[in-house]
């Protein structure tokens, strides 16, 4: 074989090897973690909460909200909610660091317990009825909830209402107040449940049938 042909074969071999290495390196770097997959899919991770105290409280409430199922998932004997929340946080950290595939063991549980939920989802998780709707069938329920808040003198500012409750119990601002309350409830329905905020409690009090039970 001539030096020219040998050189050509050598060059082709080097080129093939280099191409294979490039493809191989791209394959390796294209893998992604469960964490990155979920965030790129629109999920918000509980671990993204920066304040340590807020994060600790969020894990505690997550554990508390479905304690029996989470204890079973983690094979956990601990019943204390703070320690249970800590254990759940560690489990989520471990699972989120794994390489993503649609066959990752426990992926649905990661989606269920390691991400921030909406207030709407949290109401359902905690056995409360959904936020009242604009359907006429709910009109009497809105009024009952409103009257409950009025009777309890619940701060009107919780929903963006101005002024105070009328000193005269006979005075009724319901017709002007309820549209404002309904808009606020609709807005908060899809907002994040964050354990360190009071928004969830306010929504439950002002926007659900459970509030007047």
TrEMBL record:
Region (Disordered) residue spans: 148-175
Domain of life: Bacteria
UniProt-recorded name of the protein: Uncharacterized protein
């Amino acid at each position: 074989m001539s030096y020219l042909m040998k050189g050509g074969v050598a060059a082709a071999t080097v080129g093939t090897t280099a191409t294979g290495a490039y493809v191989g390196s791209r394959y390796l770097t294209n893998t992604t973690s469960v964490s990155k997959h979920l965030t790129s899919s629109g999920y918000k991770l509980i671990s993204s909460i920066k304040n340590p105290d807020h994060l600790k409280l969020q894990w505690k409430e997550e554990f508390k909200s479905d304690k029996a199922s989470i204890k079973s998932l983690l094979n956990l004997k601990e019943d204390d909610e703070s320690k249970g929340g800590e254990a759940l946080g560690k489990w989520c950290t471990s699972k989120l660091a794994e390489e993503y595939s649609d066959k990752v063991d426990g992926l649905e549980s990661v989606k269920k317990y390691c991400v921030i939920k909406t207030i709407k989802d949290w109401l359902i998780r905690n056995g409360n009825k959904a936020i009242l709707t604009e359907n006429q069938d709910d009109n009497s329920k809105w009024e009952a909830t409103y009257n409950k808040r009025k009777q309890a003198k619940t701060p009107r500012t919780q929903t963006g209402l101005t002024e105070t409750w009328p000193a005269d119990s006979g005075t009724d601002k319901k017709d002007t107040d309820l549209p404002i309350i309904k808009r606020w409830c609709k807005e908060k329905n899809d907002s994040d449940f964050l354990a360190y905020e009071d928004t969830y409690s306010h929504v439950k009090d002002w926007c659900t049938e459970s509030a007047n039970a």
